[in-house]
Specification:
The protein has 497 residues and is mainly alpha-helical. It is built from 23 helices and 4 strands.
Length: 497
């Protein structure tokens, strides 16, 4: 259905320009569909980060299974395979993101969850380097090669997963509640980490080292099969987003997709990549490297180290939706500014606490500080990034910027941190990495437009109720608030006559 827009009234000199909308063009959110959207997308984040979490938590075990016994480079090789898999993510973003702009968000998201499930399950079936496995003789170096192939398939599919979930939820959510709705996506992320950590912790505590090396490490990966079947079922029940369905054939990027997605959007792509850098360097430092840091540098045994990380993640899982909801009221940028400031000012104290050797509570306090930095970005970026781009290129543009930044600066964080700590002997290197991320993030936040209480570019307003829709149709919406940031928003429920 084509959008019909009534002529705009001429604004007063001291007012932002307003746009009038026909009542039938204003999208009213369906509550049931919104719940299915949140569940169906969050389950994909659960799968993605469950897989990444168990790989990270089992890094020392995987190093012994897939590399020669006693090899000094085994742990670096394990993280190197993880880094190479992240190098594939831009390819997934370049293919799956624009595909989602052509054929729809739902179809691509169904493909990504199926592919992730297959890669996770097959990883648990791989023979090891030597004969220490249920399959008998090992495959020598080919075991690591097969592991790399599985991780690359995983990386390709995840190139379209999280950005697709952000896009899907963002296009369903009401303008004034987009932050809170998108905030449920990180809940899936944290839940995946927590479930993976709890499972690995239980196996580590209950099994002997020989059993873990033989078959115990496989259990979390093999559970990917039933989990992915549940996720596919949930994805297939979703409806396509109204924003995509309302795109006319002439509005889609087919035929000139590179120009529309890359050439025309390059300033916003740079901003998006900078925000993602700060977000993901912090995320992968927290979830990808800290478990190893606590074990190898702080000299905490594996089970307490995993318990500390799991407790931090539980705190973040409980808190993230509240931070996201706060961003709907005070704006996304103030919270992102706070995150950048914490990265620059608190990273060194946080790692000093962890390395002090003053007991588990102090180590937990240091890890929690890193988690709070991460919380500022997790609570805001899922609703901020899709709002940077118009509907016809939204999935593709976010996928390209997000995955290039993640592969270059996020997924490589554990490898770089481990290499620098091992090479220099300086245990504070991770803090310096976070400080640099905070500075770059601050530059990106400076150039980021405020997206709270604003409709997505290229779409009509989306509201919670018909009453709110009538108000928007009567009062008009802000088309361009301008540099004055007047505070007038596109939807102001409570002011209806």
């Amino acid at each position: 259905m084509a959008h019909r827009e009534a002529p705009s009234a001429e604004p007063a000199a001291d007012e932002p320009r307003r746009r009038r909308w026909q009542l039938e063009d204003i999208q009213v959110t369906d509550t049931g569909e919104m719940r299915r959207s949140i569940g169906g997308t969050a389950v994909g984040n659960f799968m993605e980060w469950y897989d990444f979490g168990i790989y990270s938590y089992l890094a020392t075990t995987i190093a012994q299974v897939f590399f020669p016994s006693g090899s000094s480079a085994a742990l670096l090789g394990t993280f190197g395979i993880l880094a190479v898999s992240f190098a594939v993510r831009p390819l997934g973003g370049f293919v799956l993101g624009p595909l989602g702009d052509r054929i729809g968000r739902k179809r691509v998201l169904t493909f990504t969850i199926m592919t992730m499930g297959v890669a996770t399950t097959v990883t648990g079936l791989l023979p090891g380097y030597s004969g220490n496995s249920p399959w008998g003789a090992g495959l020598s170096i080919w075991a690591a090669v097969l592991l790399l192939v599985c991780r690359m398939v995983q990386g390709f599919s995840t190139g379209g997963e999280y950005v697709g979930a952000m896009t899907y939820v963002g296009e369903h959510a009401p303008d004034r509640g987009r932050g809170m709705m998108a905030g449920f996506l990180p809940v899936g992320t944290f839940t995946g980490y927590v479930v993976g950590a709890a499972l690995v912790t239980g196996l580590t505590a209950g099994l002997s080292e020989e059993a873990m090396l033989s078959w115990g490490w496989r259990v979390p990966f093999l559970l990917g099969a039933p989990l992915s079947l549940i996720a596919v079922y949930m994805r297939r029940r979703l409806e396509e987003t109204p924003a995509f369905e309302n795109l006319g054939a002439e509005e889609k990027a087919e035929g000139q997709q590179f120009r529309h997605t890359i050439v025309e959007q390059w300033p916003r792509l740079l901003v998006c990549a900078g925000l993602v850098l700060a977000f993901n360097v912090t995320s992968y430092m927290m979830n990808g490297y800290l478990p190893t840091y606590l074990k190898s540098v702080v000299q905490i045994s594996p089970t307490p180290a995993l318990v500390i990380i799991t407790l931090v993640l539980l705190v973040l899982a409980v808190s993230v939706v509240f931070v996201s909801r706060l961003s709907d009221h005070i704006g996304r940028k103030p919270i992102m500014w706070a995150g950048c400031a914490l990265l620059v000012l608190v990273s060194f104290p946080a790692f000093s606490l962890m390395h002090s050797g003053s007991g588990y509570p102090v180590v937990f306090a240091g890890a929690l500080l890193v988690g709070i930095m991460l919380l500022c970005f997790l609570g805001t970026e899922p609703s901020t990034l899709p709002a940077l781009f118009p509907t016809n290129v939204r999935y593709g543009a976010v996928a390209v910027a997000y995955n290039i930044s993640v592969s270059a600066f996020g997924g490589t964080t554990p490898l770089i941190a481990e290499a620098l700590v091992s090479g220099t002997g300086n245990v504070m290197v991770p803090a310096y990495i976070l400080i640099v991320a905070g500075v770059i993030g601050a530059v990106a936040v400076f150039f980021t437009p405020e997206t709270a209480k604003r409709r997505l570019p290229g779409t009509t307003p989306t509201v919670r109720t018909k009453k709110e829709a009538r108000y928007v149709a009567k009062a008009g919406t802000v088309e361009d608030p301008g540099p004055q940031e007047s505070g007038i928003t596109e939807t102001e429920p409570g002011q209806e006559e």
